[in-house]
């Protein structure tokens, strides 16, 4: 049995793939991440997955969409609550693609991350499944997260340092930015 597995990045996919294959389910990886910016970051994550998939005999569908402008437009109304919109964009497109191409179910590597809003992800996927008439294969992949990340490091994968959007990159440096702002004007002489 196959399932269409939305894949946010190669490192997160490692333990998801292992778990599904142990269950006798073959994941078909679906790259669709218009939330990842800037372009070099998008490319690094995509290319890592494109090298990994054939190495483990996994089919990969790359749906290109470097969506900087559309994504920012979609979330700019409520940047602090952008993740719900981001989940919707990616999971609804995965469900749509699964239904259109005859997959019996879909899932996502996002369910491995302890940093995502798991319940909101699940709710969004269930709504997408209902809307497109395709089954959502729910798995809580989180217990495998650490081991998967460790294996990804050992394989020499590109390991990203922030979730994906430029706002999450800002979050990564929040303390440093706040420190900088304590001295908002600097005059540098010789
Ligand atoms: S923080 Fe991550 S999940 Fe949230 S909007 Fe940005 S890329 Fe999407």
Automatic annotation (TrEMBL):
Pathway where it operates: tRNA modification; tRNA-queuosine biosynthesis
Recorded catalytic activity of this chain's protein: epoxyqueuosine(34) in tRNA + AH2 = queuosine(34) in tRNA + A + H2O
Disulfide bonds: 163-165
Keywords: 4Fe-4S, Disulfide bond, Iron, Iron-sulfur, Metal-binding, Oxidoreductase, Queuosine biosynthesis, Redox-active center, tRNA processing
Class of the enzyme per the UniProt entry, highest EC level: oxidoreductase
Enzyme Commission no: 1.17.99.6
Leader sequence residues: none
The keyword tRNA processing appears for this protein: yes
Gene Ontology BP terms: tRNA queuosine(34) biosynthetic process
Protein transport found in the keyword field: no
GO molecular function: 4 iron, 4 sulfur cluster binding; epoxyqueuosine reductase activity; metal ion binding
Binding site for [4Fe-4S] cluster: 8-9, 83, 86
UniProt family annotation: Belongs to the QueH family.
Function statement: Catalyzes the conversion of epoxyqueuosine (oQ) to queuosine (Q), which is a hypermodified base found in the wobble positions of tRNA(Asp), tRNA(Asn), tRNA(His) and tRNA(Tyr).
Name of this chain's protein: Epoxyqueuosine reductase QueH
UniProt organism field: Brotocaccenecus cirricatena
Gene name in the database record: queH
């Amino acid at each position: 049995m196959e399932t269409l597995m939305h894949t946010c990045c190669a490192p997160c996919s490692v333990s998801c793939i292992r778990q599904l294959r142990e269950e006798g389910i073959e994941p078909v990886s679906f790259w669709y991440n218009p939330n990842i910016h800037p372009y070099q970051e998008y490319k690094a994550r995509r290319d890592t997955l494109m090298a990994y998939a054939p190495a483990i005999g996994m089919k990969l569908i790359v749906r290109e969409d470097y969506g900087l402008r559309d994504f920012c437009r979609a979330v700019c109304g409520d940047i602090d609550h952008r993740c719900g919109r981001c989940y919707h964009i990616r999971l609804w497109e995965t469900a749509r693609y699964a239904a259109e191409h005859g997959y019996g179910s879909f899932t996502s590597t996002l369910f491995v991350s302890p940093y995502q809003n798991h319940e909101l992800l699940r709710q969004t996927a269930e709504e997408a499944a209902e809307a497109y008439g395709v089954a959502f294969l729910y798995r809580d992949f989180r217990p495998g997260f650490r081991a998967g990340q460790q294996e990804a490091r050992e394989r020499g994968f590109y390991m990203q340092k922030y979730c994906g959007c430029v706002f999450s990159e800002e979050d990564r440096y929040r303390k440093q930015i706040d420190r900088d702002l304590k001295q908002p004007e600097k005059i540098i002489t010789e």
